[in-house]
């Protein structure tokens, strides 16, 4: 019987896990190595700390309505896309509202998590912590690891001949970047075109003499702003679109998406991506196309080698007088505190049952929360994981036997460990994954049932944004405010924009309702499909 639960980390996943434990009547103790909550979203100017934090100018890539905890919307006056300061403020509000901080032990580092000698019978873990130089041993019935995957900088120097032996300029990882001022007047090479590489290239272009952005990937660049000025994820992440992706051939789906992406600007002309590419990544960046168009950022292919002050690219071109090389190459995750038999078996999230449970354990009392990459908010996915896991711990939800879990994992487990850029290509569908975990937890909404009992809500759920509130309509942990939150999400999105009221006050957010009514037959068909 699980009662006492150790939660490691007080970031978004850790806070959600503490709350979910409390909802299930469990007794959580959260260990946080730093002095405050927030995880990577708590910005710091210091580079001395080993703690990873966002850079100063970061803005969320997912909107507030699609990123909030499922029973705690962001304040309606918060903008749709948020700075790190507003995200951290929201975490503080969440922690205060649900009285979570009294369960957090700050400046306490977890040194080891090991099975107790009687683990086969009890499923218990011995957790050794250190605070103020004092070590302490604890016994817990279960452990939730919420340290995420932004832990150890991935710096592939061996892949770039000459950078260690010949190059005389400065070399650093994006983890060390705070703002652009120290790069003023310098010629900078950014390696890696993920969201971070794109953001930093744009920011550096305002002060650097020249910025070169090197990539080996085909990359589609998207804007946060979608049709009619609404957030992209609210328009695109819908159950209707998810159904189309499932019904249509993959090649046709890709063709439709590529045509949509190219409607903003032709990616082939910019050297970013070709519609014939089978492997590609997508990043969010409104300013990068203009920087490329204006020449303040120059796109280059993969690096071949470095000399003392120059870089040679694989296409044979050379750029001279490079002052700084900035690696935006991502992070590796690690769990150094887990005993070797457990930690060494986790290559990536596909080594885990449903990306959560180590399948080889005789007792399912260890869960890894937040080790996922989704096409939507990881925060929402992490909360759903925590809800299911605490239901398992409390005895409400059941897991299959270890042999079945292991068999499922082996079907998808990678043959070799992948680097962060390759894991980027393993992003899972936001709706597909969260729905799967919600079904396990018994909280997935039924479109067909709602069509019969609450058609207005059913249409909003099917054609509107797949926002987190949908997962609080039914099952354990249902929230009485979920329906109202879903039906008012467009109004909350527009509220912070109403700082200058015009004579035409028609509510453009209601136009989607007419589309819903016209598409009612499609919704009925979809309900039948998903109910099978």
UniProtKB/TrEMBL annotation:
The record's listing under Gene3D superfamilies reads:
FAD/NAD(P)-binding domain
Q: What class of enzyme is it?
A: oxidoreductase
Q: Which reaction does it catalyse?
A: hypotaurine + NADPH + O2 + H(+) = taurine + NADP(+) + H2O; N,N-dimethylaniline + NADPH + O2 + H(+) = N,N-dimethylaniline N-oxide + NADP(+) + H2O; hypotaurine + NADH + O2 + H(+) = taurine + NAD(+) + H2O; trimethylamine + NADPH + O2 = trimethylamine N-oxide + NADP(+) + H2O
GO CC annotations on file: endoplasmic reticulum membrane
Query: Which InterPro entries does the record match to this protein?
Result: FAD/NAD-bd_sf, Flavin_mOase, Flavin_mOase-like, Flavin_mOase_1, FMO-like
Which EC number applies? 1.14.13.148, 1.14.13.8
Q: Required cofactors, per record?
A: FAD
Localization recorded for this chain is: Endoplasmic reticulum membrane
Name the family the entry cites: Belongs to the FMO family.
Q: What does this protein do?
A: Broad spectrum monooxygenase that catalyzes the oxygenation of a wide variety of nitrogen- and sulfur-containing compounds including xenobiotics. Catalyzes the S-oxygenation of hypotaurine to produce taurine, an organic osmolyte involved in cell volume regulation as well as a variety of cytoprotective and developmental processes.
**What is this protein's name?**
Flavin-containing monooxygenase 1
* UniProt lineage: Eukaryota, Metazoa, Chordata, Craniata, Vertebrata
């Amino acid at each position: 019987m699980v009662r006492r639960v150790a939660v490691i980390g007080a970031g978004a996943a850790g806070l959600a896990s503490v709350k979910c434990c409390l909802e299930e009547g469990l007794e959580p103790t959260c260990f946080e190595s730093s002095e405050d909550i927030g995880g990577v979203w708590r910005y710091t100017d210091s580079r001395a700390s080993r703690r990873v934090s966002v850079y100063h100018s970061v803005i969320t890539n997912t909107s507030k309505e699609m990123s909030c905890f499922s029973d705690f919307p962001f304040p309606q006056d918060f903008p749709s896309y948020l700075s790190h300061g507003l995200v951290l403020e929201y975490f503080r509000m969440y922690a205060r509202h649900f009285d979570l901080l009294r369960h957090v032990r700050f400046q306490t580092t977890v040194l080891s998590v090991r099975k107790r000698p009687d683990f086969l019978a009890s499923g218990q873990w011995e957790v050794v912590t250190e605070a103020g130089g004092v070590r302490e041993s604890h016994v817990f019935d279960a452990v939730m690891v919420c340290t995420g995957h932004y832990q150890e900088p991935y710096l592939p120097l061996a892949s770039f001949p000459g950078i260690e032996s010949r190059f005389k300029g400065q070399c650093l990882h994006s983890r060390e970047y705070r703002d652009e001022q120290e790069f003023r007047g310098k010629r900078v090479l950014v390696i890696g075109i993920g969201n971070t590489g794109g953001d930093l290239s744009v920011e550096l272009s305002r002060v650097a003499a020249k910025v070169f952005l090197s990539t080996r990937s085909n990359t589609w660049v998207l804007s946060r702003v979608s049709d009619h000025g609404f957030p992209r994820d609210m328009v695109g992440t819908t159950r209707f679109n998810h159904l189309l992706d499932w019904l249509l051939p993959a090649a046709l789906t890709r063709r439709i998406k590529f045509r949509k992406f190219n409607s903003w600007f032709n990616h082939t002309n910019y050297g970013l991506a070709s519609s014939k590419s089978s492997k590609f990544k997508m990043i969010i960046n409104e300013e990068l196309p203009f920087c490329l168009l204006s020449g303040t950022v120059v796109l280059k292919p993969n690096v071949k080698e470095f000399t003392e002050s120059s870089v040679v690219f694989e296409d044979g071109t050379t750029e001279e007088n490079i002052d700084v090389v900035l690696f935006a190459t991502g992070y590796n995750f690690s769990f150094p505190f887990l005993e070797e038999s457990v930690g060494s078996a986790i290559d990536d999230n596909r080594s885990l049952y449903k990306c959560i449970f180590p399948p080889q354990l005789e007792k399912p009392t260890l869960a890894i929360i937040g080790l996922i990459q989704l096409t939507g908010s990881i925060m929402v996915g992490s909360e759903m994981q925590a809800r299911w896991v605490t239901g398992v711990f409390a005895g409400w939800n059941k897991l299959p036997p270890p042999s079945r879990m292991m068999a499922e994992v082996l079907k998808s487990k990678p043959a070799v460990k992948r680097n962060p850029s390759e894991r980027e290509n393993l992003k899972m569908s936001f709706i597909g994954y969260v729905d799967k975990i919600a079904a396990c937890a018994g909280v997935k909404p039924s479109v067909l049932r709602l069509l019969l009992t609450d058609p207005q809500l059913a249409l909003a759920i099917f054609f509107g944004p797949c926002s987190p509130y949908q997962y609080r309509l039914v099952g354990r942990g249902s929230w009485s405010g979920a329906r109202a939150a879903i039906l008012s999400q467009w109004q909350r999105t527009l509220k912070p924009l109403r700082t200058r009221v015009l004579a035409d006050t028609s509510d453009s957010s209601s136009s989607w309702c007419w589309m819903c009514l016209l598409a009612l037959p499609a919704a009925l068909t979809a309900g039948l499909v998903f109910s099978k």
